[in-house]
Each structure stands twice: as C-alpha cells, then as structure tokens.
Amino acid sequence: MSSVRGLLAASVISIQNSCFIYPACQKCFSRLILDSRRFNCLKCGCAGEAKDASYRYRLSLKIADTNDLFDITVFGSCLDPFFGVTAENLQRCIQDFNQLSGETNTDASPGVLVQAVETCFIGKRFIFGV
C-alpha cells in the first residue's frame, strides 16, 4: 500500500450502498458485531452493552476525475455538516423511523434518506484527501 498522500478533485458518479452508518469500536473504529444485548469488536476485543455502541459515518462513492473512475469511502465526522447531525443522532432518527414504519431490516436506511444523500452528492464536485 502506498504511503503517498494527496488531494483529488473529482465528481461523485454514484452512491455505492444505502447503509451510511455503522456501529464502530471507540478504540479502533472497526465495525462492531451487535446482538440485542452486547457488542463485540473482533479486531481489538472491545466489548460492552449494545445500548452503549457508538456509530460512525461510512459513505461509499464512485467518483470520477477528468481521466479515471475511483471507488472511495469517506469515514467519520467530516460528514456531519452534510447530514446536519452526528452519526449517533442520525442512527437514533433511523431507528425511530424504522420502529414507526414497522421496518424489520435494521441495516437499511429509509428510502427518503437515500434519495436525499444522492441529491446532495451525485453530480457534485469535491476535493478528496487520498
């Protein structure tokens, strides 16, 4: 893996998935394994109660500069301004919405949220740190 860092000005072509938030380990930021009561990090061994799990943004995009296409994933609080809330608060809103609507797929974001994210990002040009 290259250690060269740089900036890339590119336009968003598509959103790669509809799951924008994941339960994240507070120590290593890896995805947590959740069940109804507990969470567990397979990478560092951190564990706790499911209600105390923290959430983090993860936005997978297909982007294009003038010459190439790239798959890129943007993580963390740099997405707070775009969503208008922290990942924790958005997770609570999604949970409440899914409960009210009877949605059983807890990994799915509501369709209206997916549409809003697509409207916000697709066709827009951003500078990505890579």
UniProtKB/TrEMBL annotation:
Keyword tags: DNA-binding, Metal-binding, Zinc, Zinc-finger
Q: Which Pfam families match?
A: Rep_fac-A_C
Kindly indicate whether the keyword Hydrolase belongs to this entry: no
Recorded GO molecular functions are: DNA binding; zinc ion binding
Can you cite a GO biological process for this protein?
negative regulation of intrinsic apoptotic signaling pathway in response to DNA damage
SUPFAM superfamilies, alphabetized: Nucleic acid-binding proteins (SSF50249)
- Could you name the Gene Ontology cellular component terms for this entry? cytoplasm; nucleus
Ranges for the Replication factor A C-terminal domain?
9-95
- Tell me which InterPro entries the record gives: DDIAS, Euk_RPA1_DBD_C, NA-bd_OB-fold, Rep_factor-A_C
Q: Which CDD domains match?
A: RPA1_DBD_C
Asked if the record carries the keyword Ligase, the reply is no
Protein family per UniProt: Belongs to the replication factor A protein 1 family.
Recorded protein name is: DDIAS protein
